[in-house]
Design a protein that fits this description.
261 residues; alpha/beta; Rossmann fold; 2 domains; 8 helices; 7 strands; globular; binds nicotinamide-adenine-dinucleotide
Length: 261
């Protein structure tokens, strides 16, 4: 239990990758401040389940990650509730696809706010406490789209490239403290965010969801298998324990070979 007694915020942990990260960190003894949108009963269920399964503490803060004041309050809530923010996983994210000419301005603004600016606000708020305690692990969930592009994803690709840059700056600024900042760049992970893209593809091309799934994987991800969200959680657990102390400013792909081509 390498992370016993540590306190983590995982943004966007009511679903998909964030929820899996919360499980893996909790399994290593870490208390978890959950965050994210969704059905209240589902969220209450997650808040209740984790402490029973892993003998840790959880709390939930419904901060809207598009709002700077909410994000600052989320960090303050974790410090007040658990005593510190030792681990910050900036994971919340959304997607919208359209050509640049047709991309709605409000979708651009929302994706930049949630997928990029939220990490800046959370990091800015968490760093002073991390410096005071001389310990911090910041992990940004970027994407292969932080390194390469796909058509129809202007805002997402811009935000994810931005978060790769932010990761490197934070790593440099915190390098002499015991604080690391890294980014993880996953390829396709089967979550609600991707399921919507599969269903849109099936509808547009008038093909089955099974065929759309196989095509989606076949086009970009050489191993043709979805990445398991718990594998991303395990990578984060590694970065957060003692073995990860010299890894900072790293941009780590976990992408089934996507960016090798
Ligand atoms: P998901 O839709 O399953 O989960 C997204 C989470 O973010 C949810 O908990 C949701 O409630 C939360 N969220 C969205 N808007 C929010 C807001 N305004 N305030 C607070 N929470 C908000 O998606 P996912 O696939 O698990 O994505 C998680 C992260 O992983 C995202 O940053 C995404 O870009 C990244 N990612 C996903 C994939 C993939 O293939 N699924 C690949 C690479 C990177």
């Amino acid at each position: 239990m390498a992370l016993t007694g540590k306190n983590a915020i995982v943004t966007g942990s009511t679903s998909g990758i964030g929820l899996a990260i919360a499980h893996v960190l909790a399994g290593q003894g870490c208390n978890i401040m959950l965050n994210g949108m969704g059905d209240k009963a589902v969220i209450d269920g997650i808040v209740a389940e984790l402490p029973k399964t892993y003998d840790i503490k959880t709390a939930y803060n419904g901060a809207d990650m598009s709002k700077a004041a909410d994000i600052r309050a989320l960090v303050a809530d974790c410090e007040k509730t658990f005593g510190s923010v030792d681990i910050l996983v900036n994971n919340a994210g959304i997607q919208f696809t359209a050509s640049v000419e047709e991309f709605p301005e409000d979708k651009w603004d929302a994706i930049i706010a949630i997928n990029l600016s939220a990490s800046f606000h959370a990091t800015k708020a968490a760093l002073p406490g991390m410096r005071k305690r001389d310990f911090g692990r910041i992990v940004n969930i970027a994407s292969v789209h932080g390194l390469v592009a796909s058509a129809h994803k202007a805002a997402y690709v811009a935000a994810k490239h931005g978060i790769v840059g932010l990761t490197k700056v934070v790593a440099l600024e915190a390098a002499e403290a015991n604080i690391t900042c890294n980014a993880i760049c996953p390829g396709w992970v089967h979550t609600p965010l991707v399921q919507k893209q599969i269903e849109d593809k099936a509808k547009e091309q008038n093909i089955s969801v099974e065929k759309a799934t196989a095509d989606l994987l076949g086009e970009k991800q050489p191993n043709k298998r979805f990445i398991k969200p718990e594998n991303i959680g395990a990578l984060i657990a590694f970065l957060c324990d003692e073995n990860g102390n010299a890894m900072t400013g790293e941009i780590i792909t976990i992408d089934g070979g996507w960016t090798a081509e």
